[in-house]
From TrEMBL:
InterPro entries according to UniProt: Host-pathogen_enzymatic-act, N2O_reductase_N, WD40/YVTN_repeat-like_dom_sf
Protein name per UniProt: Surface layer protein
Superkingdom field: Eukaryota
Length: 339
């Protein structure tokens, strides 16, 4: 097991970026005064930068003000914001993924394409938007195939997953998924997409929570992995194992969450561990032995030994609720691990 890495975590409500030593859990740097409502992180190793999406001027998915129209560029060597990509007229950038095959950044957007959102492509040489495609939804999370030809968006409260052609910028298909969906991921070989369903239900656990498995050749649901609690996020580790975050409400109150690990071929449960809070974003170490869970409502991050399914440590990101944000703490959101 190895967790010798740097961990970067966004506080959405606090508008900060924190860096931690994964081994000790000690905070090594705090970047303040980011553009409002930073959301997700994406590391570009080739340029040694990290991209930061910004969704709203204030608020969260369920209640927010105007959409933001920026993606910040953070230099990992200089440890500062070195550029801001203006994506207007598109807005509400949330999920961001590196399309290494085509040297593009692909971002989901909630606004600016027809009456809804979809996905945009940004040329990383010029940092200009070069294409867009509508999803017929307020798209939140996104994943792309390894060749960069297709994308799948989870649309939270919308009853479908959108399949997008990133070469011709066209909507291919809408895969029906009653109840919506949460953060999805794709298998290492690009053959299957894993989608938590139904969408998050604040204050209660959903009926029949599961991970829907989509075949990327047919764009059909081919399997379902049952969950004990509501599914909030999926992350496929470098080993190919499927890491699933689950939230647990009891009597209307949030209990401790869970992270489960599944084998990728037969979906056998390899282990489960109780964690601190609501695991919104999951990531893992380069060798897939250590997992990280950003607990959005409590503002902390758990470090998990994935070989033995136990929490190694928990570090505080931002646990302070702000009155000007409606006293809703979203103190640990986007998460990135780098060496």
């Amino acid at each position: 097991m190895s967790d010798s890495a740097n961990v970067a975590v966004i506080s959405q409500s606090g508008e900060t970026l924190s860096f931690f030593d994964a081994t000790t859990g000690q905070q090594t740097q705090l970047i303040t005064d980011l553009i409002a409502e930073p959301h997700e992180l994406c590391v570009d190793k080739h340029r040694n930068v990290m991209y930061i999406s910004h969704a709203y001027r204030h608020g969260h998915y369920w209640k927010h003000g105007d959409y933001s129209h920026e993606i910040s560029v953070f230099d990992l060597k200089e440890r500062r914001i070195v550029d801001v990509i203006n994506i207007a007229p598109y807005g509400g950038s949330h999920g961001i993924r590196l399309d290494a095959a085509n040297d593009r950044l692909i971002s989901s957007v909630e606004y600016g394409i027809g009456e809804a959102g979809g996905a945009i492509g940004i040329d990383l040489k010029t940092r200009k938007v070069i294409g867009s495609v509508g999803s017929d939804a307020k798209s939140h999370w996104i994943i792309i195939t390894p060749d960069g030809k297709k994308a799948y968006t989870c649309n939270k409260t919308f009853d479908f997953v959108s399949v997008l052609n990133l070469a011709d910028w066209k909507l291919i298909k809408k895969i029906t998924l009653p109840g919506g969906s949460e953060e999805l991921d794709i298998s290492r070989d690009g053959k299957f997409v894993y989608v938590p369903a139904p969408g998050a239900q604040v204050g209660q656990n959903p009926a029949d929570p599961c991970i829907k498995v989509i075949d990327t050749q047919t764009d059909e649901i081919v399997d379902s992995i049952p969950l004990a609690f509501g599914g909030s996020s999926v992350h496929v580790t470098p080993r190919g194992t499927i890491m699933v975050g689950q939230y647990n409400f009891k009597g209307g109150k949030l209990n401790r969450g869970h992270v489960s690990l599944f084998e990728p071929k037969n979906y056998k449960l390899l282990g489960d561990v109780e964690i601190t809070d609501y695991p919104l974003t999951l990531r893992s170490s380069a060798d897939g032995s250590v997992g990280y869970a950003a607990n959005v409502l409590g503002g902390t991050t758990d470090v998990i030994d994935l070989d033995n399914m136990k929490v190694l440590r928990n570090f505080e990101v931002d646990t302070v609720s702000r009155a000007d944000k409606g006293n809703m703490c979203q103190g640990a959101h986007g998460l990135a691990v780098f060496h």
